[in-house]
Amino acid sequence: MLLPFSPPSSSPFSAMLLQRLLSSLARRQVPSAFPLPKSVSTVISRPAGRSRLGFAPGQSFELPPMASSAPTEDARRSSFVPLPPSPADKAMLYKGLEATLGSTFSSAPSFPPPNPLILVVSGPSGVGKDAVIKRLLEVREGIHFVVTATSRPQRPGEVDGKDYLFVTKEEFLSMIERDELLEHALVYGDYKGIPKQQIRDYMDKGFDIVLRVDIQGAATLRSILGNSAVFIFLVAESEETLVKRLVARKTETAEMLLVRIATAREEVRHLKEFDYVVTNAEGKLDNTVKLVESIIDAEKAKVHRRNVQI
């Protein structure tokens, strides 16, 4: 096999480099994916006279046959090819490598970029879902929190369109009729639902989506999305800690607290239906968020990725 090669007349280094490169490849055990002939002939072309390596114009030289076993330590040392001293020689080396392998080097990504994720965050009331999501949005780019529509009254400090989309019960029922919600449920006497269009718009921009739902909503989403979404269950360190948080909120009556605690006990039974469980320990919000970020990073590094369609 003849590989024509014409280095610049002013750079004998390139010819020497290719000779040593081919000699090195000939002495090594080459994987079967890149078979080389048992001998390689290379034509060195110069305008006139002999090259500094002693070859006449158009003269061919025969390289030794490939070794059938791994080279010795001395052979490995002698086959070392130094880096070229100039950009022109490096370009020549690059072309020589491609010619020897019989293919060009691809500039395409080694692995396609990850798909946008849908993160379904759930857990008992009072576990800190809002605080975790808020902090996550502050420290990580490329995430959109889908604002849930609800018919419940707005609490002090909540912002319409940011914390929830506050609508009347009649408006919510109209959204259901128009099929505008991915899922909806009646929770503690009030409606909650996830608008579809928000998800589509931001996933088209490459954003990961965060959904905050109760256990009932998570079960509904699991039936709709299957394994295409990532389901994360937040828990407190203990039931006692959870009750203290509910009491500290001062947003429920004693009767409502009893309902929420009883509901929380039932909800924890569904923990095994989720992909991940994260403990939101008191005073360690940043640690909780780092765990959630680790889950996102791990999901994006998977070979078999989730692919969701809304």
TrEMBL record:
It is an enzyme of class 2 (transferase). Coiled coil: none annotated. Pfam families: Guanylate_kin (PF00625). Keywords: ATP-binding, Kinase, Nucleotide-binding, Transferase. Residues 116-297 form the Guanylate kinase-like domain. InterPro entries: GK/Ca_channel_bsu, Guanylate_kin-like_dom, Guanylate_kinase, Guanylate_kinase_CS, P-loop_NTPase. The keyword ATP-binding applies. GO terms for molecular function: ATP binding; GMP kinase activity. Belongs to the guanylate kinase family. This is guanylate kinase.
